[in-house]
Amino acid sequence: MKFMIKKIITLVITLFFISIAAFLAFQIIPGDPVLSLLGMEATEGQIEAMREQLGLNEPLLIRYGNWVLGLLKGDFGLSYHYQIPVANLLKDKFPVTFALAGLTILFMFLSAFPLGLFYARFAEKKIGRVFQIINQTIMAIPSFFLGIIITLIFGLLLKWFTPGKYISYTESLTGFFGYLIAPAAAIAIPKTAMIVKFLQNSVLAQRQNDYVRTAFSKGNTENRVLYVHILKNACIPVVTILGMMIAEIMAGSIVVEQVFGLPGLGRLLVASIEARDYPVVQVIVIYIAATVVIVNGIVDILYRFLDPRIRVEA
Amino acid sequence: MKKKKILWAGIFITGFFLLILIVSFFYTPYPPNSMNGKEKFLAPCWAHWMGTDNFGRDIFSRVLAGLSTTFFVGISVTGIGAVFGTILGAFTGYFGGWLDEILMRINDALTAFPSILLALVFISILGTGKYNIILALGIIFIPSFARIVRGEFIRLKELDYVKSAKLMGAGKMHIMFVHILPNAMPALLSAITVGFNNAVLAEAGMSYLGIGVQPPDASLGKMLSEAQSFLFSAPWYVIFPGIVIILLILGFSFLSEGIGS
After folding, report:
1. With an 8 Å Cβ cutoff, is B114 touching chain A?
2. In A202-278, where do the E strands start and end?
3. Could you tell me the pTM of the whole model?
4. Class level of CATH domain A90-142+187-313
5. What angle do CA A224, A228, A234 make, to 5 degrees?
6. For residue A314, what pLDDT band results from cuts at 50, 70 and 90?
7. What residues have CB less than 8 Å from B47, skipping those under 6 apart?
8. Cα distance from B244 to chain A (closest Cα, Å)?
9. Is the ipTM above a cut-off of 0.90?
10. Residue B204 and residue A142: Cβ atoms within 8 Å?
11. Smallest CA–CA separation between A218 and chain B, in Å?
12. Which terminal residue of chain A, N or C, has fewer Cβ atoms less than 10 Å from its own Cβ?
């Protein structure tokens, strides 16, 4: 319990740092946000009224406070480019990115564990070595290139899906998830290779332990020792890299959304950077970073509960 | 595969890339930017090993030019990250104290951001272009190096040989950079190869998005985004730059694994 409270406090402090960083980063940009909103022909009076309305005449600290309060209430300010509230812009982008991330995680876990075990089982044999080289190569593929290749093979040649023909979740839920399969695979495959490697190292490290020798000397078979005794212990460290993977998946989705023309947060982020639409950039950055931090915090707490040894020490 | 073989595979692949990189400074089959309206979308053939693109430019020559940009960005970014990260990690690891605490907390907050996201923030403030990418990624890479070097310094400063150097009256700087740093090298080298790969991936990704390296600088990532429009009619345009990125990264990841053991 003490650990939980400590962890939650660190989490809040980290989020606080992130919000300050994101706020200040966009304060130092040259140029007047009011001019970006009103355009060059605005009169003095209009500019002054707008400044007052946006609260830009307040001191920096008050503005930061207002901005954070707004964020918590779901008021993200006005987009310079579209002249509408940022919240309205983001509303239908969130589900796309989060569905993509969720599907990616699902793919990763469904494939990483069987592959990792297979890999560990045959690590010393020839097939294990071949598998290692393949795994290492897959790790080296950038997810956006993999996305392009998937588009070429499964979209254009085999025609399993129509590239660029995104189906909205409001239209058809199955069509929506169907279209997400290809981009999710593009992000998941290289990351899965990473987890497989990690799992294999973890299994091989466990093999050195006394309890494994004991299990063998009691007459257990290779398979039983691997699946019953080792797997439980080898899985624990794998949980920690899940947190890291969330950051990677988010980063991957920024680029892969572009490859498949998915109208998610990543694509809006890139478009907003090009249009210098800072309020939008700011909010998306905060949201992605906050997601990563919160998931990491949850993973840390989960880790404690999975491994009794750490629980006792805490 | 034995660790030693992995190291040699890494040296071989990376060495091969360095070799063709050096050759490309003096000779490319065609000027990378020269267009030829009569030779659009030629499939790979003897005259054009990797075919030609939508402007009739030789893809092989453009890949070579892109490779030099990639190396330039990768080496500069890892250089900035490694130098400043080492200094920061050495001081915080050796002296500890409140400065160490504060820097490590900032470090933790920074690692929460996916590096490409942080780079995008920098780019949206600084603007696009090769040097801004290097600056952005370089700064972002400092914490990861600092963390590794700090860990090594904390471990090594307690060892007997450091203590006896202290007894012999060696100065703090002397102990840090002459006695400890060389022993932190294996970890640092491994971090450098991983860092190089991350820099290459980030640059390719950002250039693909159109907010990285800008023309006339050639970039493998940019080539991939241009090539995507002609995926069906000219698949070689997308395949060759992609394979080059993969092999480059594979070479360095073999190197890091080989060094790591």
Report:
1. yes
2. none
3. 0.85
4. mainly alpha
5. 120
6. very low
7. none
8. 10
9. no
10. yes
11. 31
12. N
